[in-house]
Amino acid sequence: MSHRGRFDLSGRTAVVTGGLGILGRPLCEALAEHGAQVALVDLDGPAAVRQAAELAEQAGVACQGYGCDVSDPGAVQAMVEACERDLGGIDILLNHAASKSRDADAFFAPFEDYSLRQWRSVMAVNLDGMFLTAQAVGRQMLRQGRGGSMIFTSSIYGLLAPDQRIYAGSSYEGRAINTPAVYAASKAGVCGLAAYLAAYWAPHGIRVNTLVPGGMQSGQNDIFQASYGARVPMGRMGQPAELTGAVLFLASDASSYVTGHQLVVDGGLHVW
Predict the structure, then answer these.
(1) Cα–Cα separations (whole angstroms), residue 251 to 36, 92, 209
(2) What whole-number distance in Å separates Cα of residue 126 and Cα of residue 264?
(3) Of 66, 183, 228, 257, which is the active-site residue?
(4) Is 183 among the catalytic positions?
(5) For the whole model, what pTM was predicted?
């Protein structure tokens, strides 16, 4: 195989949860452009079907959209069975779905006032959903007997505590923001789960790695972007498309001897 060919995903099927998100869309596009059939999974089933059809036409590969609540074991299992039926199995999982919940006031509440109900609501998607999806896809990969690659999306705040000073005067789409403890705790849990499964499934040729993005530009105001950028050696937030190279590496044979790794894409934030 040529060096360039090690990034070729032709003949493989990639499941991407959270495929309609700000990061999910370019990641689905990158996988399809490199030859993978893509199962685009999101809570909004009709929108996932529409986006998958557009992606199939754009990339010239088979793509399917599926609605799925990743916190529901039955829904996750049904999604995996549909992928196997429609696309012939699963070779790659981008375990990416995450939630900030529909109640922004509850999500961004101060730690001292944070409700257990809200905590569990976020954990149900950010951590339980990762577990359920990995479990169902892992069973499918074991049945297939051809190994596979799983990529779990965490966050730099799964490794580091946020600098609370950057949130003064900061907003996202017009509302004040912070990084709540439930987000950091859930993303740290993602790292731990991925590490466990990397060792657990290694004898079966299933590689499990973690993508650890830093802050991505997606609607934050200028004050936040400047404050965050001042904490980063490269001096800025990332762009969603800057994650695609890392995902293609971890999904493909280019990383055939890489498992249990945390690939940090953060402009150098973690070194300061």
Answers:
(1) 10, 6, 9
(2) 19
(3) 183
(4) yes
(5) 0.97
